[in-house]
Amino acid sequence: MACGGGSNNKPVDAKRAGDSGSGSAVTCNATASYGAATIVAAGSAYANSAAQIATDGSAGFIDANQGYYGNINADAAPDQFEMDLYENFGAFMTGSGTITTGTFTLTGDDLSYQNCGLCVAIYTNLASDGSPADFYFATGGMVDLTSVGTPTGSGISTGTLSGSISNVMFAHWDGSADKAVGDCNSMITSLSFSGTIGPVAGGFEGGPVRIVGRRTR
Questions:
Q1: What is the DSSP string of 31-61?
Q2: Among residues 65, 105, 108, which one has the least CA distance to residue 87?
């Protein structure tokens, strides 16, 4: 999952949903329905190396093996779609545990922030440093992966990550539970994505402004 700020080394669930703790009324920042959404600027696909995953794992973090993110509106503070893929979790727990192509229903562990293997989210109102106003996590829908990255000898995946989502529902996630709570809801009826996978440079320290793929256990 993404976490804004190029030098932010906090666990991703420390402050992700814009929860001020003030008890004020909830502001729903996501559009109720994005309909047939499109990536309005060039999206990006990424991959972590096996070495980086192992390094972060020793510190208590789990890195996504590969993923994709891109803006879904052209606002000054845009909303962003993100999908993160984790080997041996959720949809990819069966067989060898590798990330594969196919059509998947978002259910079970893939609706859990900590246990998903196929993790689909929306970040709203991104600031210039990449930090979101809040975070919406999938509560149902379908994902079709038509191409996924292939690990190289260094363990990092290369190639193209592409596919589409359909009728994916989202609920606001405030960090207080493992699943989205639903005080605000959103939906994307369809969205296609495709990107050439590039490595996350240097993991999280010194990586891109939009830091991707990290969660805690």
A1: -S---B----S--EEEE--HHHHHHHHHTTE
A2: 65
